[in-house]
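Model: Ready when you are.
Researcher: Fold this.
Model:
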Amino acid sequence: MLPGVRPLQVPIGLRLSHTARVVSRAFDDALAASGGSVPIWLVLLNLKIQRPANQRQLAQAVGVREATLTHHLNAMETLGLVSRRRDPANHRVQQVELTEAGDALFVRLRQAAVEFDSRLRDGLSGSDLGSLDLLLARLAGNVGDDDAAAPAWEGLADTPRTLPRVSNDPPGRQPPSA
């Protein structure tokens, strides 16, 4: 860009980065008000919906390295939110489970997350939300996001990509072959 020449539009990356930062901070604040944080929420959420068999699978589900997860689990274990034990079949593998306190915090954080999501959806139609989902996926694709890993919230809700296809054809009619 030439000195003194302004772009005609604000670059998408700057707008997206700013929006993500604002929304992320607000979500952090909403979870903190309920006694949690995003890392704690993601661990609790995945223990509930994914039920990973061990700490390695939990790290993959949450989308962090095992060392990072270990740091979070140490803190969560100290708070009494999770318990870890060695797999009887393989003592090198740690299994992670929610405690009653972890389950109670999950319920509080789930409510905070639902209320926050409702705030985000305010004034957006179903069509707007569908377009937003597609646009965000396209932006990620445009920068080469070919990461096949599922997001940390995979399985939380059905999305257009996870819902089974439903035919609008009358019963007994075969759909046209492709």
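Researcher: Now this one.
Model:
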Amino acid sequence: MLLNNMFILWVRIFNDVGVGIFRLRRLNITPANDIDFITMYNFFRLTICLLLSIFIISCASTSPPVGDDIVEKSADYKYTAWQINDSKTYEAINALLEQADVLIKNKNVNAAEDKLERVLRIKPDYAPAWSRLSWLALQVNDPERALQMAKRSNSFAQSDVKLQTLNWSFIRAASQQLNDEETYLQADRKIEALKAF
């Protein structure tokens, strides 16, 4: 809507200035250096068209599709879907996850993966650990592994909408790196469907 209004404004300015130039021509008012008003009018039209083209091009979005901001490459990687469970049954898992967090902040990805895999040896169906492994795979440019880990996490996160949404965003990012348009669109649809919950 804003772009449409801007276009209408440019057309009105263009017409007003053009009409003004022709009125000056009819009145035989010419500048001291005797520039031809028709040439000036054509130059003005060309300039306006170039400026309008630059404006439209600059308005075009070059950012990723909406929702890709879920997957960030920053060191502050913790997502609310990965919140640590406070119950006593998860004491060992929580300790390993905290150690993995420290290792990730120190950019020691391999050791962090080892800690997460130890979590999965304790509780193989712990979906947040699979999700973190997916995120780590994206960080080291391993989209195939990221895709597998996110799908595995989703298979265990059936009632956790936040975690599923996060995993589908990882799947979308991985499929974009793999140039797999079909999986990308499927992930996009799933994310939109999960937003309803």
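Researcher: Key takeaway?
Model: Confidence is low (pLDDT under 50) at residues 61-76.
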